[in-house]
Specification:
Glutamine Phosphoribosylpyrophosphate, subunit 1, domain 1; EC 2.4.2.14; binds adenosine monophosphate; iron; 28 strands; 16 helices; 7-stranded antiparallel sheet; 2 domains; amidophosphoribosyltransferase activity
Length: about 475
């Protein structure tokens, strides 16, 4: 997962890009970058680290221009190396080209081989560079960015929400199944695209709509136009965005993520009620779930754990030992709330089980009498090939393990995962329009040696181009 943004507006976009990326920091903490274009020059700055470590006022002031794109990175394909930071920037026959990408291609290796055959040299190990290579080649041949993007979409397999800058114009497109989010907003004097609506909120921009799966948009100073490139029988939006990844205050597909999570919490209570003294979230991801559970059960919501907000996600710790210590640094139990109490802890997911086990141990150390664990997703039993950093089957605690076994591994008094049906009901969206690969082991695109339920995608002939008036 990554966070991406593109803005065309008057009066300089570097600060707005920075604020928008700040709202998307949860989508990636490994690196950050911004490119802007002004009077024939591409200005760029990117580095590893959090946004606040990468940028300061002086740097942002040196990024002039009324068009720009930005990225926060969470690596899936391509190691955490300086050259893999985005935007990727190129010059091409007198044009400047910059690209940011959220997603994961599943045919990256084939495409790299194909383009190496054409003599292309790759400077990074990210799949995003392949997208740039395809667009660059087709743009050189046809001279049309629209045609280059259509051809690129014919070649790419996997998930991709992409924002590019070609001189003073932004082009953005979303894969035919809409696996990763991307939405459009109206700023004071222009337009923007961003991974989540919270980035629009940060700028006071007005939400227009999500980019449709298989849609391309073009934004320049004369306005915004859109073109539908593909149509498919079903989409495959990443269900994990609703479970874990997106911010609760984001609206995706017309649905407030907070409401989905609160409903999941209600359903967790209906499916597995427990007579307890307090309902406590594992912060922050469990908060809206715990609110729902508490409302439905009538048991008081009380924070049994307080998070130190200045520590990054424990998941990025490379070793088991570091991960275990990091939990203690990050979450401190509130003894006065849990001592002698029966506590329901609510979290969004269990992946390796490391954090959950450590949290339950901590809560017991601080005096809880019973710890019941409630989880806002069904067991994660399969890896993700489409952009969420999940480990292999072997490392997933629920792979080949019954819930009772997982319950003893994490040393809870009871454990319940929300059912798949209840989770889908909470979203109000058809199950066939989600990618549920990590929960079902069945993927919406072809992946070698995995089960797939591929969606049927058609490219629209004689595509139309319409202005998006607002
Ligand atoms: P664990 O008990 O080690 O499996 O960790 C569970 C915690 O990891 C939950 O609190 C989740 O919010 C969080 N989590 C789930 N998926 C991811 C992910 N892809 N990246 C980082 N953290 C995650």
């Amino acid at each position: 997962m990554c966070g991406i943004v593109g803005i065309v507006d008057t009066g300089g976009v570097s600060f707005p890009l920075y604020y928008a990326l700040y709202a998307l920091q949860h989508r990636g903490q490994e690196s950050a970058g911004i490119s802007t274009f002004d009077a024939g020059t591409l200005y760029k700055h990117k580095a590893q680290g959090l946004l606040s470590e990468v940028f300061d006022r002086d740097i942002l002031e040196q990024l002039p221009g009324s068009v720009g794109i930005g990225h926060v990175r969470y690596p899936t394909t391509g190691e955490n190396r300086p050259e893999n930071t985005q935007p990727l920037n190129f010059s091409l026959k007198g044009h400047h080209f910059s690209i940011v990408h959220n997603g994961n291609l599943v045919n990256n290796n084939e495409l790299v081989s194909e383009y190496e055959e054409h003599g292309h040299i790759f400077a990074t190990t990210t799949d995003s560079e392949v997208i740039a290579a395809i667009i660059a080649r087709e743009l050189t041949l046809s001279g049309s960015m629209e045609d280059a993007i259509v051809l690129c979409m014919r070649k790419l397999e996997g998930s991709y929400s992409v924002v590019t800058l070609l001189d003073d114009t932004i082009f953005a497109f979303r894969d035919p199944l809409g696996i990763k989010p991307l939405c459009i907003g109206k700023t004071d004097h222009g337009y923007m695209v961003a991974s989540e609506s919270v980035a629009l909120d940060a700028l006071g921009a007005i939400f227009i709509r999500d980019l449709r799966p298989g849609e391309m948009i073009k934004i320049d100073k004369s306005g915004i136009s859109c073109r539908q490139i593909t149509k498919s029988d079903h989409t495959a939006f990443c269900l994990f965005e609703y479970i874990y990844f997106a911010r609760s205050d984001s609206v995706i597909d017309g649905v407030l993520v907070y409401d989905v999570r609160r409903k999941i919490g209600e359903m967790l209570h209906q499916e597995a009620p427990v007579g307890a003294d307090i309902i406590s979230p594992v912060p922050d991801s469990g908060t809206s779930l715990a609110v729902g559970y508490s409302e439905a059960s009538g048991i008081p919501f009380k924070e049994g754990l307080i998070k130190n907000r200045y520590i990054g996600r424990t998941f990025i710790m490379p070793t088991q030992k570091l991960r275990e210590n990091a939990v203690r640094m990050k979450l401190n139990p509130v003894r006065g709330h849990i001592k002698g109490k029966s506590v329901v802890l609510v979290d969004d997911s269990i992946v390796r089980g490391t954090t959950s086990r450590r949290i339950i141990e901590l809560v017991r150390e601080f005096g809880a009498r019973e710890v019941h664990f409630r989880v806002g997703s069904p067991p994660v039993t399969a890896p993700c090939y489409l952009g969420v950093d999940l480990p292999t089957r072997k490392e997933l605690i629920a792979h080949n393990r019954a819930t009772d076994d997982v319950c003893s591994c994490i040393s809870a008094d009871s454990l319940h995962h929300v059912s798949f049906e209840a989770l889908i009901e909470a979203t109000g969206i058809d199950a066939a329009d989600f990618c549920t690969g990590c929960l079902t082991g069945c993927y919406p695109v072809k992946i070698p040696n995995e089960c797939s339920a591929c969606r049927h995608v058609d490219f629209i002939h004689g595509s139309y181009q319409t202005r998006l008036d607002f």
